[in-house]
Amino acid sequence: MAESTDEFLAAWRYALADADQAALTCRRYLAAVRAFISWFERENHEPFTLQRLTPIDLTGYRTWLQQRHAVSTVNVHIGALRSLCTWLHETGRVPQNPAQRLKSVASAAPLAPKALTALQVNALLREAQQTRHGLRDYAIVQVLVQTGLRISECAALRVGDVKMSERHGTLTIRMGKGNKVRTVPLNASARRALLDYVAERWGWEADWTQLPSTWAALDPTRALWHSQKHPTLSVRAMSELVEHVVARCTQRELVPPETSAHTLRHTFATAYLRDHPGDLVGLAALLGHSSLETTRIYVQPTAADLAQRVEDLRLNAYV
Which one of the listed residues 168, 177, 274, 309 is annotated catalytic? Predict the structure, then answer.
């Protein structure tokens, strides 16, 4: 008796699990294949069987997907079908692999993420100063925009990770992506904001000359950012405070509504390359990127850049 669709899909699912595929990947792949089977039956007006599966069906489905979905979604479906067809061939369920020449859809080079202008950054900083915890929130926004830290990295900072004086400063990131440790410099704006914050938090005078002795007396494992209800400010709470500051600015149309903590990271990266053109290696080290390909997105033009360049063409002679 021929194996049913549900039976071979169940066997494939177990094969994916045995190959240590993530549970989410397994679910996505199964959903993608079931979507293909439904499409096959609608288009061909016949029940799906492995014997009727051809490369033409697969390329036809890819075309159908391209007309309706983003490239990333299309490629998830293609990846699922290639995985299934390879397994079907390897297990002898089909004599040839019908997806052997099925290619992913190429996407255009991504545009650079949108960064804030200097005026927009200043608007966020001014608003952060007006919150209930003004010095803390101002320092958080300054650290994010002046270092390009991920918000999870910023929230994880401990007292011992901060080294600073009036003229120099560094942050040691111990909870970076991929558990990589890196050190990033603190500029004068970030150092001053941190000095004012820690002085208020621990009841010190905001004086650089007194900082070394008072800072050394603290427990280095203590969380840098305080919270009234918890020993440390969580990533979620930090995200919410940034969202609150953004919302207040958005009400007055001072920043785009889609601004987030990650926008501050993009803003730092864009500003760094503007002042140091071509230094992708340096920027990658600061951002904690393991591949320059990830950093390369910041040398791409933004949508606004392209629009302005087209607007400035000499061909644009309409008056």
Answer: 177
